[in-house]
Design goal:
83 residues, mainly alpha, Monooxygenase, 3 helices
């Protein structure tokens, strides 16, 4: 494992952790607090980064990016459902 994989993993772990209260607030308030365009773009690009990390052999970074992308996907879906 290269040290860059660990650094990217930790940074993305913090990003994913930071999204948890936003997701919870969306479910609690039944509101999509994220703008549609923001949710869509972030969801797509974080999944693209995950694929890129996997192709580079950065397994930890790829896995946590999938988690991060899924968090953005939930926020995106909330923006559609809870208009």
């Amino acid at each position: 494992m290269v040290w860059q994989d660990t650094v990217i993993f930790i940074a993305n772990l913090v990003f994913a952790y930071a999204l948890i209260p936003q997701i919870w607030k969306g479910f609690k308030d039944k509101k999509g607090h994220i703008i549609f365009q923001t949710g869509l773009i972030n969801t797509i690009l974080v999944y693209v980064m995950a694929i890129t990390f996997f192709t580079l052999g950065l397994l930890l970074s790829g896995i946590i990016s999938l988690v991060n992308g899924t968090a953005w996907l939930i926020l995106f879906i909330q923006s559609i459902i809870y208009k």
